[in-house]
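Components:
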Amino acid sequence: MTTKEKIMDVALHMFSERGYEAVSIRDICGEVGIKESTLYYHFKNKMDILDSLIAKFKEHIEGLLIHIDEMPQMPSGKTKKKNAGSTDIIDSYMMDSYLFDPFCNLMIRLMMIEQFHNEEMRALYEKTMFTDPYDIYLRVFRMLATKGTFPESQVDAIVRRYHAYMTMLTYRYLLNGELTEEKKKAYKKEVHALMKGGVI
Amino acid sequence: MTTKEKIMDVALHMFSERGYEAVSIRDICGEVGIKESTLYYHFKNKMDILDSLIAKFKEHIEGLLIHIDEMPQMPSGKTKKKNAGSTDIIDSYMMDSYLFDPFCNLMIRLMMIEQFHNEEMRALYEKTMFTDPYDIYLRVFRMLATKGTFPESQVDAIVRRYHAYMTMLTYRYLLNGELTEEKKKAYKKEVHALMKGGVI
DNA sequence: TTGACACTCTAACAGTCGTTAGGTATTATT
DNA sequence: AATAATACCTAACGACTGTTAGAGTGTCAA
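Structure:
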């Protein structure tokens, strides 16, 4: 990891825990192991660190959304038990590559903190936590409806329910205090229980 | 409003928007219109302001919970259309006296921000945003089940759904950027649409 | 061997931070 | 009238803030 990457990594950890303003340049440099002037060789000022993190995050989710656009009509399609495909693809993109991903999880926390006084953060937060996920769920469940898993007339209601559950569980387990392995397990367990239990 | 109350009011507005550490004593005093030394006449230090806000909030929700404990088996019970009672009591306690209440709404935002590096805040946040609401919904829907609105066997599933919807909508509309009248209306509209639409 | 470049350092700047000592009015109590 | 309490003030403290000028390093191409 280069010094620049290390600075961004340390800064994200600190920003997402205490907020941008509350973290000082000296806090970051102390943890990275460099002098303050060295940081200004890599970034033009403090805000430039935050901007770089946002740019990196935007690139990351852009990549995810492109992959979802290109996703197959039904992933592998080996097992044919009900809803299996939907769980797989949502697990893969929403959980493993987004909510559980260390970088993305910390960025979501940072957006949660900064959204109240930063309009750019607020817009990005709304898009990545509400608008985009809803669109993804809609796409997945529409696909499943064409496969005959359930009537197309029910898609809207099912997507609303699924989105509500996923959002609640995300805030309950993945954005509440430290993200432990236990919380990830509890989150996955609840999601799968809902799928099996026919609550969706 | 006394000077002490004004300090707490201004501090809460600033803390809930930018976070505790990012707000300075001079920021607060400038807005209140006093000198810094005057603030130290009313509070022993900066943390004392935060502690006072937390104490006030705890008292507030304690009062709400006691009122719910003492609530009648069925409020007024004049109209008998399905689910009418549940909506009324939840509107009254959860929305008007909690989520929409200016003081509580700002305290929730503050807890959202501070929970990641303050264990007391995290515990209070979990209790007031997840544990307590779930218990309240459970109590209300159990009561409705005994009235025959729906089978008792369905109570658990219904409460899970209701809690998920309410939590999602709260984060989507009431804890996302500025709390406008439009957002309150959109929130209420979605909640009532879910009740009428039989999605619950 | 020289020069250019990438990277890190020392040392300091002006401004802001939380906090405090000590003074001054106004009001209530004796 | 004297005393005490309440609520505010001026002025400053040492520590910390983001940021910068300028001086080394080491590596590589000419």
